[in-house]
């Protein structure tokens, strides 16, 4: 049976001169430290694709299979990086731990995700590469994990490959859900569908994992090296820096997750797949989770341009505003 269509609700409105111009529908969920639902908007129990927001779980599964990297490279293994030189050099360092090279990667060839970095890359006449593509850290880590276990390399993206089966198993364990559907992510790796609630529960488990566990290693790495997880100018990096102990991960198609050290977690999905409202909605969910709003400038949303000035901007739906 195919998963049903989600019943999303308005999460944010784009205002112009006091009138609603556009509406971003979606779903959001806030879980307590014990995994109980504290607040829900829309349809967080509908099956969805977590996209790159699931990367901390993927990295945790690989650590559990013997991936042993310095913290900065482990954060890169969980990243959707901006393609800065530190990211490109870091991916090469990951590969070098097992005498692998860029030629072993099976992620797409691409340009840096950050537009400023991409412009400089193009101005320098550099061609697209697998190293610059934002998922190269994850793919390098998958290759290293496979090599260290004596598993095949060429098919590491196959859902039946041991690396991918370990990822699916840990995701099911931490989320408390069976994988509902298997697809191919934009980077070519398997993509395992689950509910937004299950995703929040899994990220909360990573954030609150006991010291010495694979999940705790990934959480510590992302807290310590948020630039490796995202980039110098990325909102997800600034979010991690702003809230002590927080882990967070953005994903394509309007998905984002975040969790506090006690396991309190949030997950959001913007139905139209755009990122315009994502940061503000994530920040609002974190306020509902107990984070001080003063730490979250993304609550201000985005401005609406009008000629030479700015008129109005993004307004959160009342269901996301703490009363």
Automatic annotation (TrEMBL):
> Could you tell me the superkingdom of the organism this chain comes from?
Bacteria
Q: Which InterPro entries match?
A: Asparaginase_II (IPR010349)
Q: Which Pfam families does this one have? A: Asparaginase_II
Name the PANTHER family for this protein: L-ASPARAGINASE, PUTATIVE (AFU_ORTHOLOGUE AFUA_3G11890)-RELATED
Name listed for the protein in its UniProt record: Asparaginase
Organism of derivation: Haloechinothrix salitolerans
């Amino acid at each position: 049976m195919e998963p049903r269509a989600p019943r999303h609700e308005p999460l944010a409105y784009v205002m112009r001169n006091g009138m609603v111009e556009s509406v971003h529908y979606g779903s959001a969920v806030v879980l307590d430290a014990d995994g109980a639902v504290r607040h829900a908007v829309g349809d967080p129990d509908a099956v969805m694709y977590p996209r790159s927001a699931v990367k901390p779980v993927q990295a945790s599964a690989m650590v559990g299979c013997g991936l042993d990297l310095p913290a900065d490279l482990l954060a890169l293994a969980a990243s959707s990086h901006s393609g800065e030189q530190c990211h490109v050099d870091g991916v090469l360092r990951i590969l070098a731990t097992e005498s692998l090279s860029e030629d072993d990667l099976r992620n797409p060839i691409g340009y840096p995700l950050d537009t400023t970095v991409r412009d400089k890359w193009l101005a320098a006449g550099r061609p697209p590469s697998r190293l610059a593509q934002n998922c190269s850290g994850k793919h390098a880590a998958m290759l290293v994990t496979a090599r260290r276990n004596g598993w095949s390399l060429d098919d590491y993206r196959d859902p039946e490959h041991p690396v991918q089966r370990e990822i699916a198993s840990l995701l099911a364990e931490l989320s408390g859900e069976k994988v509902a559907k298997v697809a191919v992510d934009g980077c070519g790796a398997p993509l395992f569908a689950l509910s937004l609630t299950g995703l929040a529960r899994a990220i909360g488990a990573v954030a609150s994992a006991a010291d010495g566990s694979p999940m705790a290693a990934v959480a510590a790495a992302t807290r310590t090296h948020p630039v490796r997880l995202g980039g110098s100018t990325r909102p997800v990096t600034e979010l991690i820096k702003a809230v002590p102990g927080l882990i967070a991960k953005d994903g394509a198609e309007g998905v984002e997750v975040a969790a506090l050290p006690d396991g309190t977690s949030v997950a959001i999905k913007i139905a139209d797949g755009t990122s315009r409202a994502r940061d503000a909605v994530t920040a609002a969910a974190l306020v509902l989770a107990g984070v001080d709003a003063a730490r979250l400038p993304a609550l201000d949303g985005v401005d609406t341009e009008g000629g030479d000035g700015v008129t109005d901007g993004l307004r959160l739906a009342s269901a996301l505003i703490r009363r």
